[in-house]
Model the fold of this input.
Amino acid sequence: MPSQIGLIGVGLMGENLALNMESKGFAVSVFDVAKEKVEKLVSGRGHGKKIRGCGSMQELVESLELPRKVMLMVPAGKPVDDIIETLLAFLDAGDIVIDGGNSHFSDTNRRTRMLEGKGLLYVGAGVSGGEEGALGGPSIMPGGSVAAWKSVGPIFQAIAAKVDGGVPCCDWIGDEGAGHFVKMVHNGIEYGDMQLICEVYDLMRTLLGMSALEMHEVFKAWSEGPLKSYLIEISADILAVRDDDGLPLLDKILDKAGQKGTGKWTVVAALDAAVPLPLITESVFARVLSSMKDERVSASRLLKGPPAHFSGSKQAFVAELGKALYAAKVISYTQGYQLMRAVAADFGWKLNYGGIALVWRGGCIIRSVFLEKIKQAFDLNPALGNLLLDPFFGATIAESQQALRNVLVEAIKNGVPTPALSSALAYYDGYRSENLPANLLQAQRDYFGAHQYERVDRPRGTYFHSNWTGRGGETASTVYSA
Done:
């Protein structure tokens, strides 16, 4: 009997996805250039299951039912293009190629157009949840050739995480690279969530002098309230783990963070779209700064700040930390959603923003009860331009912003770095300001570059240039905007 789907790349994610698919009743053919991986799967965890090992891409393609569905779980970039080029010799019109890796959405745009031009269908599917999610149920964000959805949808929705008694955390996202783009934004928000949690942890550790066990209890309590999320839950777990000597394992981990690039991609996309994304940007740079470990150690011996000292109520401050974390989280997601809206408009994608929140509610790294509030916001107003303008989120910020301000005052007074928390408040105060000092900035640009400016007492869209020194002429430069 032919297999219903083929999978190329049986590393940990690919292997777990294959096992997940098979457990839901689908026969799977697998191939990897490292043939020992295929043999290990077929004779090991896949033994006795409907998982067929193949020795070549041609054998894999020939083992599939029509229309053929081939899913790639390989590193982004050239490896994907190379495999597609090889597959083209064996595929027929109507067959479907699926990229389940972390490809850049612009590559998925290009590949979709290229394969559709050859009569094939292409799907760029963002898959979130790590190895555990791949096996037990990930969040899946597919986009590309919409005609492929009727064939791949039943498989994806069967293997995806489920919420609310069976609703799959998978739905069609949009055309071309929309699926990979939404996955990229998900990863950027993930960077923000993780950095915010780390800053709150650092304030408890450095400023309040709390033990790992005390912090564990705080995170455990937060995981049962409005902050309930996967990342809060695992942070509570991490704080409870002891090393062989009985001391907290976390205290022995080097403070030097890594990244795979999707956070950086999110920041670059925001710059290209002229969308303010300061919190996620600061989260990316915080990882970069952490990587400068040796330089920071040297600098710590030369550069001094105030000694950390807290004289207030620890219990009250921990409560404010929870409110500050929630407020900053709202602002982070606000920025991510604004980026999705701007890029979707540029590419003509019709994204379902409430539906995206639903897709993220299970299986993925940023899953949380918070996402239900985002879905409700877009159910109430599908044209919502900024989450802060939703009644619930507006009221939340109104109630929690003072806690965020109080937390930052203590952080600044005591020299504890809080780049993401600080940028959250700066964004909020900037967004709510009717007047910003950009009038001076525009005057400066016109002074040194004759870039012109608009006036508050003239119609918008009318530009002026002033001879600020009396020495310049009346010729103005071309108007451009950031």
About this structure: The beta strands are 5-8, 28-31, 51-53, 69-72, 96-99, 121-128, 139-144, 162-163, 167-168, 174-175.
